[in-house]
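Hello, quick one for you while I still have it in my head. My current little project is about how a certain protein chain folds up. You're getting the sequence in one-letter code plus the fold written as tokens. Would you mind checking whether the tokens look sensible for this chain? Here's the protein in full, and shout if anything looks odd to you:
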Amino acid sequence: SWAPIAHFAEVCLALVLPHTGFALLGAMFLTLVGLAGGTLGAFYSWATSLYSYNREAWMTDITILQSHDYQYDNMQIATHTMSRDQVRDRTTAAITKLNN
């Protein structure tokens, strides 16, 4: 909100206006506007760099998580395939033993 800056400007006007001309008043106002703009610009720059860093970290985390999930799913499929093969081999061995 601009309310604190506006209040500060009003206080400065009340103190400076009776003692000086409008040139100093204009210079003070421009200084306040420049200070506010510089502060907002610095905050925007900081927020942009922070967002960029967080996005890169998030993208890396997501890539690693997807890779982990893919490997886990493949491991589960391989485990079930080996289990089925083992059951088939044991069943075949039992049937062969019964036939002999």
The chain has a mean pLDDT of 81. The radius of gyration is 37 Å. DSSP finds two helices and no strands in the chain. Helices lie at 3-16, 22-99.
